[in-house]
Amino acid sequence: MIPVRAKSKKLPVAKKASRRILLKLSGESLMGDRGYGIDPSTVEFMAFEIKKVVDSGVQIAVVIGGGNIFRGVEASVRGMERASADYMGMLATVINALALQNALERLGLQTRVQSAIEMRALAEQYIRRRAVRHLEKGRVVIFAAGTGNPYFTTDTAAALRAMEIGADIILKGTKVDGVYTADPMKDPDAKRYDKISYIDVLKYNLKVMDSTAITMCMDNNLPIVVFNIRKADNIKNILNGKGIGTLVSGDPKKRK
Prior knowledge:
There is one protein chain. Strand 1 (20-25), helix 1 (40-55) and strand 2 form a beta-alpha-beta unit. Strands 4-3-5-2-1-6-8-9-7 form a nine-stranded mixed beta sheet, with helices on both faces. It has helices at 40-55, 72-77, 82-106, 128-136, 154-165, 198-203, 211-219, 234-239, and strands spanning 20-25, 59-64, 111-115, 124-125, 140-144, 169-174, 195-197, 224-228, 246-249. The chain has a single domain, classed as Carbamate kinase. The protein is α/β, with parallel strands linked by helices. The radius of gyration is 17 Å and the shape is globular. It contains eight helices and nine strands.
């Protein structure tokens, strides 16, 4: 087992102010306390949290999953052809993206949904330069439909889009307050990491993001912060340098 390092007051990534971030939200995070679907009050809360970031002058893009509606991997295990199941999951992410867009625009924010699968009546088709231009104009860009390809998760889509738009960091919102040695919902003795390396995440199969996403971030030195999306001001506090969540980056021993 890798040692749990003492908590620091500030995350190393805070030494450089983030100008552009990518927020990764799971579909399950939109359920609230429901067992399925979208909880309007939860989506409204997340929209408020995103607005705080926009109001602070930081550009933000969002990649959203679809597990609250349909999970392609689970369907394929039950006998559905994998590619078809994954395409259905991509459509679920579009539903979630439209729900978040509606909540953001009711707060007065300008948004764009860009889909990796063309559906002109609902969203723009993903074009990297157009997405960057929207961000420069202060719009929230919501990336839907994953990468547009089966067999790739929305975690991989988040890593890919973050690098394409030149994001400084990925913030992954979850139901727990960071990365643990074990599932804290099942193991009361699980310990939270303050920071951890990409290699250790892969080595110990800690389920931060899928291995493809972690490897892409490692190869491009893109830090990830895993945090509790349900707690107010967490995003803003991370950007202000407070020790929220778990920082996943290069070897923590080598960081100053």
